[in-house]
Amino acid sequence: MIQTWNALRTVCRRVESDVTKVLRAHELSIAEYETLHTLNTRATHAVRICELVSITRLSQSTVTRLVSGLEQRGLVTRRLSRSDRRGIVAELSELGQVTLNRVQPAWEEVVTAALGEIAGDPEFAHLVKRAG
């Protein structure tokens, strides 16, 4: 079990390194990409900051700085929650959508290649099949 865990961590680090290189070419960090992707998966393209904290597992202050940086670059906008006027909502901007659409194919290519490489490994084949 420990050997599988260590092997999985090694694979994850390699994939993360490859993804980081792809995202850096588009001037995005992994956390920024994941935030844009999360916003894009929502019907309204918007998520409350407190929900982003839960999704990303980053601290409140880190998410706030992350969203502020994305907002300064025009990739997201921030507004008060329409439902309670207390919470802050991050919303994917048009530029954020364009950026995400440009980055997504390269990200998918890197992840697909990595999963393809480990698919033949019996230790990971069942994981890759589930990720399908």
Written overview of the protein:
With 132 residues, the chain is mostly helical. It is built from 6 helices and 3 strands, in the order H-H-E-H-H-E-E-H-H. It has a 3-stranded antiparallel beta sheet. A hairpin with a 7-residue loop joins strand 2 and strand 3. Helix 1 packs antiparallel against helix 5 and helix 3 crosses helix 4. It starts with a helix and ends with a helix.
Short description:
The protein is mostly helical and 132 residues long.
Would you spell out the secondary-structure blueprint of this structure?
Elements: H1 2-25, H2 30-41, E1 46-48, H3 49-56, H4 60-72, E2 76-80, E3 88-92, H5 94-119, H6 122-131
Helix pairs in contact: 1-5, 3-4, 5-6
Name the helix and strand elements from N-terminus to C-terminus, one letter apiece: HHEHHEEHH
Straight-line distance between termini: 23 Å
Biggest sheet, spatial arrangement of strands: 1-3-2
Computed structural class? mainly alpha
